[in-house]
Amino acid sequence: MKILIVRPWPSVLDVRKNTYNIQEVGLAKALTRRGHPTDILFWTDGDEMTVEIPVEGAKPIRVFYRHGKVVLKNVWFSGQDALFAQYDVLQSAEYNQIFSWHLAGKYPDKTVIYHGPYYSPFNRNYNRMCKVFDAFFVGRYRRLGTRFLTKSELARKFLLSKKLSPEQVTTVGVGIDAELLKDRPDAGHTELEEKMRAQKKGLKLLYIGRIEPRRGPFFLLDVLTEVRRKDPDACLYLIGDGDAEYVSDVKTALQEKGLEGCVFWQKKAPQYQMKGVYQQADFFLLPTEYEIFGMVLLEAMFFRRVVLTTPNGGADMLLRSGENGLVLEKDDPACWAQALLEVAADPEKKAWMEQAAYETVIHENTWDALADRFLNVYKEEKNV
Q: C-alpha distances in angstroms, 376 versus 40, 379, 383?
């Protein structure tokens, strides 16, 4: 089968500079290695061009950068029928993207939609947008029996709430491109990693991600405060940035809590230097209100860290709480502190959980491990 992966919203991605965390690229490489040539269609507001990504032992992936009309964060690619005709499968993304809906109607026998979001009270704008879409558009998917792939069970339940049939919706998960996490001899160390190495006593807690309300940075400070009641040398390390005013509020809060000497912050770091940061940490914390999946969970588990997070799309798929990580409600920082301190006090259990986390990712959640799940649905759609 020849497959084209379409991203139907306006985001500027330059695969010539970096392909890490571009899910379309990781999946395309895995499918191509399976013997199914796969290309990608991205929107651009610059020059139209085609870029090739090499795949060892196979034809390169072609990434088509094409213009399209942008309306309310939707892209409409016009004049691409000749391109679409070259492929046996068209994989678009998100059920409520108008171009996904268009492809399902125009190419019903070869369109598959990969969907991630789900209902959350925190996600008010998205919830309102979906209500409008459901009122006018979702009926087409029911009539045509459009096939959907979801990133989590929460996303699957969300689509089933739209009265799609269970046969239409298959959960496949999200993968990581382990090839891009290999050691680089020239990687060096980030400034943050140097600080972590200098800390000789106390637990090292790590957070990586945007500094924003959804991700709970004030909660992280409260967890650290609780941990330091039992472990006064514990420190928190952050990599991320956000809205300047909100970041300033977080920094003010840590000063008010007397945490200036035990919270260390770096705005960003290249992916090839992240291994050392993860491996210096004792625990990775993600107290998020909402997460479609959370690639940082995959990363932390790949690098054998014990993860503490909330119930969310990624945790739903990846974590068996108490076995390969900890899933906790975001209601009491003292509970988070107690949970990680109990694991830290049992080195044998901690090492066992770290190894279980790694095995979960490497056996179940690389793109190569997931490729057959996608292919099975494609084959059903094509009646192969």
A: 20, 5, 10
For the chain, what is the domain count?
A: 2
Q: How far is CA 98 from CA 134, 309, 357, 378, in A?
A: 12, 33, 37, 21
Q: What residue has token string 């919706």?
A: 169
**Which domain does 304 fall in, by range?**
183-364
Given a cut of 70, whether residue 184 has pLDDT beyond it is: no
Same domain, 198 and 166: no
Percent of the chain with pLDDT over 90: 78
Residues 188 and 155 occupy one common structural domain: no
**Looking at the structure, do residues 161 and 34 belong to the same domain, yes or no?**
yes
Say if residue 126 is in the same domain as residue 141.
yes
Angle between helices 244-256 and 217-230 (to 10 degrees): 20
> pLDDT tens across 302-329, in order?
999 999 999 988 898 999 988 999 999 9
Q: Which amino acid is at 120?
A: S
Helix (H, G, I), strand (E, B) or coil at 129: helix
Same domain, 99 and 47: yes
Do 309 and 373 reside in the same domain of the chain? no
In the chain, alpha helices (H): 23-33, 81-84, 98-106, 124-136, 139-144, 153-160, 191-198, 217-230, 244-256, 274-280, 295-302, 313-318, 333-344, 347-364, 367-382
pLDDT interval class at 6 (50, 70, 90): very high
Residue 154 DSSP SS3? helix
The verdict on 58 and 157 lying in the same domain is yes
Question: Model confidence over 42-90: pLDDT tens digits?
Answer: 999 999 999 999 998 899 999 999 999 998 889 999 999 999 999 999 9
Does residue 322 sit in the same domain as residue 193?
Answer: yes
Q: What is the domain-level CATH number for residue 358?
A: 3.40.50.2000
Average pLDDT of the segment spanning 346-355:
97
